[in-house]
Amino acid sequence: MTQNPETEPGTPAPLNSAEVTDLAALDAGTYTALRTVRSEARLELDGVWHQISPRYVVSQIVQNVIFIAIVAIAAAVLALVLDQTWAWIPAGVIVLITLITLVILPRQAKAIGYMLRDDDIVFRKGILWQRMIAVPYGRMQLVDITQGPLDRAFGVAQLKMVTAAATTGVQIPGLTQAAAEALRDTLIEVAETRRTGL
């Protein structure tokens, strides 16, 4: 390291950012780009109800059919191979509850919606027991997108908003990938401008 002529003898020269961090080393040997990038679209805070994708219902049906098949196979192994005939009773109850859930699933999905207002996002769900949650933008601490393997196959995602109060956390299932990314980016951008003390 060379001595800066303008500094006094014995005083170390100021370090520039290139000497502090080797920026080239941060990307050496890594992937060239992320699979998904943040979208540039910004949603309007229009106060209009938005609904989820119908593909969410198809994804849930496939997941539940797989679950029913696993329960049936487990019950068959217990009953036929291990001679535990009692296994048919809990398996039958589980399958019956799952089938009832599948019957009401399309109507439940139609009852899910969200609205972007000036100061908060409102989320609603439920048929008989309806629930509406308003989450102020300034209280959001984390906005997260989650996708399982079947969700990715059907092009849907779940967006989760975390606040300081655990009871006001919101999960919006069944969003399309584009809608989830646009909503995430909008919420992050608006939350930065509406940040409030906790």
Characterization of this structure:
The chain is built from six helices and seven strands; from the N terminus they run H-H-E-H-H-E-E-E-E-H-E-E-H. It has 198 residues and is α+β, with helices and mostly antiparallel strands. It has a single domain, classed as PH-domain like (Roll). The strands form two sheets. The protein has a four-stranded antiparallel β-sheet with strand order 1-2-3-4. Strand 3 and strand 4 form a beta hairpin. Helix 3 runs antiparallel to helix 4. The model has no long low-confidence stretch (mean pLDDT 81).
Summarize the structure.
The protein has 198 residues and is α+β, with helices and mostly antiparallel strands. The protein is 41% helix and 21% strand. It has one domain (49-193): Roll (PH-domain like), CATH 2.30.29.
